[in-house]
Fold:
Amino acid sequence: MLQRSFDQPPSPPEESTATAIERSPQPTVDLREMARILRRRWKTVAAPPLCLIVLALIYIVAATTLYTATSTVLVDPRRANAVESNQSAMSMSNFGTDDATIESEALLIQSIAILQRVVEKLKLTDDPEFVPTPGLLDPIKRLFSSSSSVAGASPEDAAKARSVDILQRRMKVTRQGTTFLVDINVSSESPRKAAVIANAVAEAYFEEQVRAKYDDTRIAANWLNGQIDGLKSRVVASEKAVEDFRSANNLTVSQGVTVNDQQITDLNNQLIAARVQTAEARAKFDQIQQLSKSGSDPGGFNAAISSDIVSKLRAQYADIAKNEAYNIVNGDIFRWSWLWPRIAKWFGVAWEGFEGAPVLLESQMANDGEIWKTMATKYGLVEPDLSRVASPWHTDLDMGRPIEVMTDMTLSRKLGFHVYQNTEEAFHDLFASLREEKVIP
Structure:
């Protein structure tokens, strides 16, 4: 039987895995090989960057440059409005409510009501920049867009809504950190137009604030008028009830007062007349006592009082005395040389003294109007106008005489005027009164 035999060489002994790995060739990086690869495939490597550069250049050429203008407004929630103007309501404001109020005002600036006012004021519906241009995808967009919002709207309203939508996309309102300042950023193809629109949005916001306050005031006024009308009706009803009560109790009214009030008035008049008679009788009694002490005859006192001759003599004396000049002064004796230092001490100022010649006060106070106004503001005085407080020319007329003036009270004292007042105390009382009334500091 034939058999095929294979002469197989003996297999070499198996090497360990570690030894095989060590003997296997390791991949290496050859820069020259990489350069050859780049030279062979340079088109594939350069195509993507070149495409991106071309697309960027096309966008730069085709895109429209937009300028952004910023208008900053102050939103202070702590300012009192027309209805809530008391201090207790303002004190309830805190940081949490302030933040919420500022964020709400920022959203109000972007509201359709304010933007519609801007569109109407600047006539943006006639501006090609704020009129949407037809695009290739507009028919598809109209298929998926809802037309319920513009159903039944006039073409003017639809154009205004489209301009408002474009303005909303061109505008951004942001708050500056945690301050009360809000920035209104508007972008436009023209820098001047962007500034005009940003300022118009700020003005529209302020107009909206004024309108809201006007509405609040009108509502409050209507409520107050209603309350006043209700009080008037209650007063009329009360007066009618009083009239009915007077009629029912026979309390008639004469010359605007009731009978009881008239009787009380008559009794008061009688009481006053009785007091006057009592005072006259007491005066006569005192005079009779003085006559008795002096040794004169008091028996003819009543006759002398009621005598026509005495009355005529008194009338003649009064007629003569009316042409006499009587000095009316405090009645004490003083010198200005020692009174001025005491007045200066009362005010706590330095006293310069007399320098040998009169110095006119009018020239010294010629430019003191602004100084007095500053003092009036500092000390809260009632009159900031110096000319309404002091008249230097009049003081110069009285105090600027080159001779010493003495005032005699003999004639007045002979006629019974014996009252006098200390001059220094009179000045101190006057200054204290003027200081209390906030006329002088």
Q: What stands out?
A: Confidence is low (pLDDT under 50) at residues 1-8, 87-91.
